[in-house]
Structure formats: structure tokens, C-alpha cells
Fold each of these.
Amino acid sequence: MISFTRLGGVEGKRKRAGLPRWAGPFYLAAGVITLIWAGVLFNDFLNVPARCPDTKVRCGAFLTTSLRQYTLSWVVFDVALATMLVVTGWLALRRRDHVQLPAAVTGALLFVDAWFDTMSSPRRDRPLAWAQALFVELPLGLFCLWIASRAERVRRQRLADALRRLGEKDELGV
């Protein structure tokens, strides 16, 4: 039987070792917002041919027809990011130890998102891309890595405590 443990803390260090209570709801909300944004991008992807019959004219987010596929790839990426934000938020909300891997993956996706947004945005959109990267994506990514490291620290401490208790039982002849 699989046993899941909670990320509430270890003996004697309960308040220091756990995650903030707002982390789970915050990441769940961020995942929903990202999913809505992916829907906006997908709607733009679907409706651009009707708005822009001439692909040589800049219209919406697309410069040429090939950039339609580029936007579709961002839709898929944002759906993946939203999924990982929701998984991280759900596991943090449930205070599960195994939040560490989804949190690390979510952090990496946020860093990739910040990188490509800032490097691929048109000149007129760069200030917004940089602001979003510096004030949203990078801090969220760093917080994800903090969650992952905190969960790992708690897991290792629990393992050490269990091994110590097992050693004490062996010494008593139990």
C-alpha cells in the first residue's frame, strides 16, 4: 500500500519546516489564470485567418502563417504550465511531501517561459515582457524551487528520524 506523508514539518520543527498555507491556493489560482490565458491565445489562433486574409500584413500576434504554428506551440506550452501550476498547488494545498518534483518542474517551466517571452517579443512589447518576467515568472519560479527544496529537506529529516527510531528499536532488541 502506498503511504503519502504530509509536508507539515518534522518533530519539534513543525512551524519552520512546513509550507505557507497560502502557497496551495495561490498556485491553484495561478494555474487557472494561465489556463484562461491559453484559451485567449487559442482563440486568437483560431480567429486570425478571418481577421487577416493577407499574411504579409501584420495582424494580431501573427506576422506570417508560420507564426500561427508558433502561437499554437505557446498555447500547448501554457496548457502544460497551467497543468503543473495546478498540480503543484494541489499538492501544496494537501501538504504532500511529493510536491517537490512538480514544484521543480513548474519552476523550470516558469524560467523557460520568462526566457522565451523576453527574447522573442517584438521591440514594442519588450518592456511588458521584461516586467512580467521580473515581477511574475521569475519570482514564482524561485518560490517553486524553494517549495521543492523545503519538501526535500522535510523528507530527508523524516527519513533520518525513522532510521534513528529503527536503530533504537534494534538496540532494545525489539
Amino acid sequence: MSTTLMFLLVAAPLLAYAALRDVMTRLIPDGVSLAIAAAGFSLRLFEGWAAAATSVGLAAVVFCSLLLLAMRGLLGGGDVKLIAATTMGLPPPDVWTFIVATVLAGGILGVAYLIGRRVVSRPRRTPGASILRRVVALEAWRVRRRGPLPYAVAIAAGGMFLLFSIPRA
């Protein structure tokens, strides 16, 4: 099994958790990004110090590039950390695929939210509703108020795309 596949198998549940937390609270726990980065660095280290150093350098470039977007309010700080952490565990060619898949998923998410602004009706409060119903009502409220996108969903989708597109040997 390749180290990239092992990394994505470790990172996939963490990315899914980050996406869920982002939808529910618009916050991505730092521990998730740290765990993904540590797993990625450890697995890249199995390929040698040069591979690990390349991944760290590439993650730093991605982090600094996306930090500029975060400073302008176009991307959240947690999203920047999550993308950079995921980058840490990928070989350079897969980083580009991950970023492109994440951007495309973000575009689909953005279009869904634009459509949602026109389609979603005013949510009703129902005491004792299930957690899913409350999250849907909260998202409807956020959509109507033009709140920020839960971009960790797009990041997780980019990671899942990469996971399922790796050829199995």
C-alpha cells in the first residue's frame, strides 16, 4: 500500500469531522489540522528525509499563499490550516490534484449556496427537533443572511476525490 493511500485513509475521517464541525459551528478545531499534518509528515518520512522536507516546504508555500486570501477575508484561517496540513501528506503531483479538486468542490458549494438563497424558505423553530433538523434550519438561516461557506466541506471533498482516484496496485 502506498504512503499516499495510507495518509488519505488516516486523513479521510479527520477531514469528514472537520467538514461536519465547519457546517455546525463554522470552526475547524486546530487539533484536526495538527493530527493531519503529523500523520502526513510521519508517512512522508517513510519515503525519506527529502520527501518529508519537500512536503513541508510545499505545505509552507501553500499556507503562505492561502494566508494572503485569508488576510483579505476570502478564506477562513481554519481552512488555510486544513489545506496546508493535508498538503503535508501528499507528494507534489497529488498536491495540485487536491487543490484543483478542492477549488472545483468549492465552486459547486458556492453555486449551491447561491441557489439556496433563492430557494430556501424561512426556517421554523421547532422545540425538541433532531440535531439534523436544527443544523438544516441553522444553515437555512445562514444562507438567507449570506453567511460564510463551510469551506471545509470542499476541502474534504477534494481529499476524498484524491483518495478515490488513486490507482490501487
Amino acid sequence: MEEHSTRPAKRRFPGLPGQIAYARRFVARHLGDCPDPTTATLLTSELATNAITHSASGRETGKFEVCVHRAPGWARVEVRDLGNLKETPRPQHRDPYDTAEHGRGLDLVEALADKWGSEARQDGMGRQVWFELTWEEPDR
């Protein structure tokens, strides 16, 4: 979707594990009327967890930002962190019977999002990882 009719909602969070729940609530508040807000909040949780686990966002003074874009039948959520621009985040494609606790976040994003990706932030201060969800709008 190229055209965005409304301004995105943005919020910055301290890079602490307890803030992930606040990031989920922020997304739920802005996507609460979409058909599947649960998927949006799950994927936000995965990206925010990666931000504080794998980037400088999780350091003592680190932060991450969540940005929600909306249009009819479409949403995009971006998690902007202080990430390494030399490594591109990739799904692990783990065996479903692997019992390791970590390494499945981007697998979930890849499986559940209609589109996803990552790129350098426009301000050059790190990386943003995003996902998009689409749905059919009801006839009115």
C-alpha cells in the first residue's frame, strides 16, 4: 500500500523488558478495530523483544520506538531500534520440535504477516523492522 491517509501514531519506550507489554497495548489501542489485533500485538511483542535483546536499545539508556500506520484494510507496525546495520535480521526456520527458548520471533513474523522487512532508519541511528497486515473491509 503506497498511500497513507492518516499520520502514523508513534511512541518511544525505554529499552526494558517490562516495556514490551506497554508496546503491545499501544499497538492494540491503535489497531483495536482491525479484525485480528491479537496477531498485531504478538508480532509487535516479537519485534520489540528483538530490539532490546539484539541491539543497543536494550542497554541501560537504550530506547525503541513503535510506529503504527493505518489505512482502510491495512496496517503497518514498525519497531525502530538502535540496531546493527551490518547484520540483517533473518528468520531462523527452526525445527518445530526444537525446544530452544529463543530464535522463533522472526519465524512468527514471516508466517503471520502479509509482508515484513527491515532497513536502516532514515535518521541513520539504527534499524527499523516492520510488518504489514491486510484484511477485507466490510461493505457499508
